[in-house]
Amino acid sequence: MIVLGSTSEVAQAFVEKALQEGEQYERIYLFTSNREATERFAQHIDVKFLQQSEIIELDLTKEINYFNFDYINSNLLFCATGYLGDGTEEGLYDNKNTERIIDINYAKLVPVINYFAQKFEGKRSGTIIGLSSVAGDRGRQSNFIYGSAKAAFTAYLSGLRNYLFDKKVHVLTVKPGFMATKMTEGLPLNPKLTATPKQAAECIYKAFKKQKNVAYVLPIWGVIMLVIRNIPEFIFKKLKL
To answer: Can you give the pTM of this predicted structure?
Structure first.
């Protein structure tokens, strides 16, 4: 298994869920920009599941040497890479903040996934799981820079799924709503609309095994976003969402 964004609590919960279900991997490749935190997780799955892993440093804000990944052989890629950034008015007009949000959530991430997608295509097998966001379903004033990057990522995954279908490679788009993670710590989230990483992992694993195309972590978010997407623009632009 290849894990992009391996310090993500959802990614780690998914890895644990897969191992608990008896999935076997010769090696799990943990891509990260935080080696120290990832080493703790690598030690954890080694002790608990006797699972071998390898840590690979990947910083999406820097130049990437893809030749370093040539030896990696896998049939499953799980991408939980994400960066919420500063969603305040100050953050909106901070170009460094904007560039970082776009780079990490889309611009620098897509070429990495493409690199492994080509390998999967060559083998005519594999699954790519990408964590996008409900924020990408419609631009809202509270987080539209982040949402626009996630909208682009959702569109990319949709097109990749369409392209790879007859190459026997499946692409699953996951759209979490509110998540109780380090990234959202301190935000006023409605507990009824908020999933834990463990809940997310359960949902994603089921969707993976059923080869679903799109999965909302909590089904209620599918209904909420259906309503939001269909609000007429002349009304929507006046709302504080």
So the answer is: 0.94
